[in-house]
What does this fold into?
Amino acid sequence: MESAIAEKRIRAHVRETPLRYSSRLSASTGAIVFLKLENLQETGSFKLRGAANKLLSLPREQAARGIVAASNGNHALAVATVGRELGIPVEVFVSEHVDPARRNRIESLQAIVQTVNGDSLLAEQTARRMAGQSGRTYVSPYNDVDVIAGQGTIAVEILRQLSRSGSSGPDTVFVAVGGGGLIGGIGSYLKTVSPVTKIVGCWPENSPVLYECLHAGKIIDVPEKLTLSVSTTGGMEAEAVTFAIAQQVIDRKVLVTEAEILDASRRIYRDDDQLIEGAAAVAVAAFLKSAGDYAGKTVVIVICGGNADPALEARIKKT
It folds into this structure.
């Protein structure tokens, strides 16, 4: 029940995002479809929840030393936003491939940004090393129980919002998967409070890291290709706590193609007036791919973020 505690802790700092009924998706599939719109979160992503819970959980003296993170995107925006609000110094390490506009946005939130000449893994390793040397806290985007509990507050809201609308708990929830923090938090809470709810993990075929790890029964290196689902890319840390959680909470796994991701993005833009990023479209695409199995069922699709890069935004709007 860590997420229930986290929900109360972060309430003053994180929006309760809308749970919106999708009439078009419902009509076309026969399911009762709701979209959990985390793209309308302050930073445009669910990551704000985990960052808020982690930083609010730090003892005062520890927080005063500052925190360190590694991210080219949503996690960096989240820790920088919460750090500024709480007066906690934030240093973010980014890879040389970071989008300049995203770097400027992180810096505008008063975070110190350091560029590492290498990929995201090297940026993460550098951030961990610098945190250790300086006595500051390293905040992982997924491999942290406080971060996971923060992401699970989405499930707390889903159940409350469905109850307000007169609906019972969801039959199924679709969640895009990267490092496993989001699905781990949502799944852990729902398996306790609404055990009949099925949790569907959704991956791009081009980056099925945790998917392949689960099939192997251990954390392994998985080759990746370029994908529109940028936010779910990257390898798993060897001792990631999310691996065991994912083993316990994921009931079904779905892979989707790049064409299916783009089509889902366009569909949500056209039918539900929401501009979403590739990772969010992965969950939509996975539902559409298996929609025949959910006729008459109450389905929630977690729209995990809306920070589409300019190139993807242009492709989405070219419908």
About this structure: The longest strand covers residues 198-204. Strands lie at 19-21, 32-37, 67-70, 90-95, 112-116, 137-138, 172-176, 198-204, 252-256, 298-303. The chain has 15 helices and ten strands.
